């Protein structure tokens, strides 16, 4: 695996690459970094894998303070793809990263072969809007969760009951939660989550010119799969896939093989 920095006037974007072959570009969720995807890199050989640290997380340094709307994250990624890939690429993302996938397909279609958006919605509403808005306001007000409380709080949103009820599985997945949230900068968390809260693309999806595959997780409490199904149904060339027994972050340590298998199946179906 190789680490590097891509410089633009606005951002020093830290990114990683691994392997050779057709490009798959991976978009991390909020509070995660490019290194989060290494399991998927190893499970999908024969590709040139690229991922990055979005503004507000990891080693990336933004030269402009927030707000950073999803369009800004997509513009950063578009510049990176043009620099280090051979477009059009397959682009995959989870949560905030899935919003970046949707924006890439609509704002930069010439760079994208197809998109795979996991644990996503096209517009926040109802409970998930209320919950995310409360998280942002808590952080903007200076709120900080002790690391042990943050671990328990976010684990409930990331993993299904199978993980939380199995001591061995929990020990395996716990470091994923801790890495994202135990010492999270509250201002940066709020900046990323505010971008997710404000994003809406449902009115543009019918005009999307690239295939969009949405993967929902049956036990996803953070972004229930019904939200993702609406995205797939709205897209001009949309497809919905539901993976049973999985939560929002089950692709990390819990059931990475199941996710890699589905991603490989989708890519193969497009030749």
Distance between the termini: 26 Å
Here the CATH topology equals: Rossmann fold
Q: In CATH, what is the homologous superfamily? A: Alpha/Beta hydrolase fold, catalytic domain
Structural class: alpha/beta
Summarize the structure.
The chain has 271 residues and is of the alpha/beta class. It has helices at residues 38-43, 70-84, 96-107, 126-140, 147-158, 161-164, 167-181, 186-198, 225-234, 256-269, and strands at residues 2-7, 11-18, 23-27, 48-52, 61-62, 89-94, 112-118, 212-217, 238-243. Strands 1, 2, 3, 4, 5, 6, 7, 8 and 9 form a 9-stranded mixed β-sheet that branches.
Topology (elements, then pairings):
Layout: E1 2-7, E2 11-18, E3 23-27, H1 38-43, E4 48-52, E5 61-62, H2 70-84, E6 89-94, H3 96-107, E7 112-118, H4 126-140, H5 147-158, H6 161-164, H7 167-181, H8 186-198, E8 212-217, H9 225-234, E9 238-243, H10 256-269
Parallel strand pairs: 3-4, 3-6, 6-7, 7-8, 8-9
Antiparallel strand pairs: 1-2, 2-4, 2-5
Helix pairs in contact: 2-3, 4-8, 5-7
Walkthrough of the structure:
- With 271 residues, the chain is an alpha/beta fold.
- The chain has a single domain, classed as Alpha/Beta hydrolase fold, catalytic domain (Rossmann fold, 3-Layer(aba) Sandwich), CATH 3.40.50.
- Helix content is 43%, strand content 19%.
- It contains 10 helices and 9 strands.
- It has helices spanning 38-43, 70-84, 96-107, 126-140, 147-158, 161-164, 167-181, 186-198, 225-234, 256-269; strands spanning 2-7, 11-18, 23-27, 48-52, 61-62, 89-94, 112-118, 212-217, 238-243.
- Strands 1, 2, 3, 4, 5, 6, 7, 8 and 9 form a 9-stranded mixed sheet that branches.
- Strand 3, helix 1 (38-43) and strand 4 (48-52) form a beta-alpha-beta unit.
- Helix 5 crosses helix 7 (167-181).
- It is globular.
- It starts with a strand and ends with a helix.
- The model has no long low-confidence stretch (mean pLDDT 96).
